[in-house]
Amino acid sequence: MFLSPINSSSVTESTSSKADAATDPAAAQDRFLKLLVAQLNNQDPMNPLDNAQMTSQMAQINTVTGIQQLNQTMQGMAAQFGAMQVLQGASMVGRSVVTEGNRVQVTDKVGKGMFELAGSAGDVKVEVLSPTGQVVGTVDMGSRNGGRHAFEWDASQYKGDASQLRFRVTAQNGSTAVASTPLQASRVVAAGADNGNLSLTLDTGATVGYAQVKAIL
After folding, report:
1. Backbone angles phi, psi at 160, to 5 degrees
2. H/E element holding 150?
3. Does pLDDT of 16 surpass 60?
4. Which residues of 90-99 are buried (b: 16+ CB within 10 A; e: fewer)?
5. Buried b / exposed e along 121-143 (16+ C-beta atoms within 10 A)
6. Best CA proximity match to 181, nearest among 113, 92, 130, 132
7. Which comes out higher in pLDDT, residue 73 or 190?
8. SS3 content of the chain, % helix, strand, coil (to 5)
């Protein structure tokens, strides 16, 4: 017995059309009106459908239709907004941004870094760490107000891989410890989208969301 091959494209189109019909507001409203007409044709003559009930049902279908149309509009706007974000993010490629991180940047034998203090501190100290966690340098910052601060460290005496240097900050206000957040500057090498949000790929290999960027240099 000869069997005709199944046309997969027609199956796909049929499935797609059924899915569209299930979500199309106009199709949903058409189905409601057909059900309403059938209900009117088959109602009990001794107990007809109340006008208030009919009005309530029509108002409900209009509300559902309006919500579906609003959802479709918002989804379209979200997609356009995501595309615009990526386009704007492309203009940041090649620029440096400040994000959380404790990497020491060494240029011309000078190590640099930044940090943010949660409040004023009378004694602030930055310790430069080797890849094994050994302290290889210290920078006494003295008294600092709350906010963002930068430091420099003479890296000329360090013989190891300077790209692996990290730092940590200790801040005291009398006997009370002051919270600090280490910051680092990295260059943006690519921009993309993650769940509709702008994401940036840095030269460190890390990917951060735009909301994580503290400053653009």
Report:
1. -85, -165
2. strand 147-154
3. no
4. eebeeebbbb
5. beebbbbbbeeeeeebbebebee
6. 113
7. 190
8. 35, 35, 25
pLDDT at 154: 95
Q: Which residue reads 């951060």 in tokens?
A: 208
- Hey, where are the domains in the chain? 8-90, 96-216
Torsion of CA 126, 127, 131, 136, to 10 degrees: 140
CATH architecture of the domain covering 96-216: Sandwich (2.60)
Q: At what angle do helices 8-23 and 25-41 cross, to 10 degrees?
A: 70
- Determine the Cα–Cα distance for residues 112 and 103; give it in Å rounded to an integer: 9
Cα(123)–Cα(174) distance, integer angstroms? 8
- Three-state SS annotation for 74-103: HHHHHHHHHHHHHHHHHCCCCCEEEEECCE
For 104-124, write each residue's pLDDT tens digit. Answer: 999 999 999 999 999 999 999
Task: Tell me the C-alpha distance between 104 and 24, whole Å.
Answer: 56
pTM of the model as a whole: 0.60
